[in-house]
Amino acid sequence: MRNKLNKRGKLQCICVICCMVIAFFVSETNVNAAINLQASSQVVITKQPESVNAATGKQFILKVEAEGTNLKYKWQAQKTESGEWTDFRDTTQSLTRTMSSIYDGWKIRCIVTDGNGNNVTSNVATVKLVSGPSITKQPQSVNAANGRLFTLKVEAEGTGLKYKWQAQKPGESSWSDFNDTTASLTRTMSSTYNGWKIRCIVTDGNGNNVTSNVATVKLVSGPSIIKQPQSVNAANGRLFTLKVEAEGTGLKYKWQAQKPGE
């Protein structure tokens, strides 16, 4: 009789232990699942907004990138000498404004919230008003004969300046880029360039830019000699005259000599 009871008792004890072990593993699994679920539901910012330097009248854009579900964006600004954060009305992942002295020194951030109410605040980006590049000498229109070199130049003030020359061909509305990246553009005149409008976009190290006036290129007929100077034979002390006749506008003359043995 005791043997039977002992066997039953052992069986019951084994069952209880098994149940406790199973319950432990089930409980641990549920806890891990809850932890994983909680971790996966967090909002993560993958790209922070960056500080900007912009000249008056130029657009600046702040962007934030985040991972999560049903994300909402709230942009805030801390104005110069203010300790409070003020909400913008913008609700997308980017904020765009036109630069003016109003925004100079502002600190801006974004609060990203998911559908579960979890949120994260971005790093702070600072907005700074800077002087953009200014053109001090505009490119001038040119008239050139076929085969002659012509050069367009621009002079500008600013830091880290870069130059982009563009052309608008006759009958077209779009502008095409040249490969030239210096303050001057030189070409050999041909009918190809006749009537082209050319300008230069000057950009500084902060990305601010200014566009030059438009210069026009015109192909013109060069001067032509219609009567050549004639060789002369003259006695010592006698006057001799050499003449040349040419056609063209604004003509200038330069006479040259080559002495014997030179």
Explain how this protein is built.
Among the domains are: 44-129, Sandwich (Immunoglobulin-like), CATH 2.60.40; 134-220, Immunoglobulins (Immunoglobulin-like). The protein is built from one helix and 22 strands. It has one helix spanning 2-40; strands at 44-47, 52-54, 59-63, 65-67, 72-78, 86-87, 94-98, 107-113, 119-121, 125-129, 134-137, 142-145, 149-153, 155-157, 162-168, 176-177, 184-188, 197-203, 209-211, 215-220, 224-227, 245-247. Strand 5 and strand 6 (86-87) form a beta hairpin.
CATH domain class name of the domain at 134-220: Mainly Beta
Largest sheet: 6 strands, mixed
Amount of helix: 10-25%
pLDDT average, as an integer? 87
Quickly give the CATH architecture of the domain at 134-220.
Answer: Sandwich
Task: Using brief descriptors, characterize the structure shown.
262 residues; alpha+beta; Immunoglobulin-like; six-stranded mixed β-sheet
Please summarize what this structure is.
Among the domains are: 44-129, Sandwich (Immunoglobulin-like), CATH 2.60.40; 134-220, Immunoglobulin-like.
Write the layout of secondary structure elements.
Blueprint: H1 2-40, E1 44-47, E2 52-54, E3 59-63, E4 65-67, E5 72-78, E6 86-87, E7 94-98, E8 107-113, E9 119-121, E10 125-129, E11 134-137, E12 142-145, E13 149-153, E14 155-157, E15 162-168, E16 176-177, E17 184-188, E18 197-203, E19 209-211, E20 215-220, E21 224-227, E22 245-247
Parallel strand pairs: 2-10, 12-20
Antiparallel strand pairs: 1-4, 3-7, 5-6, 5-8, 8-9, 8-10, 11-14, 13-17, 15-16, 15-18, 18-19, 18-20, 21-22
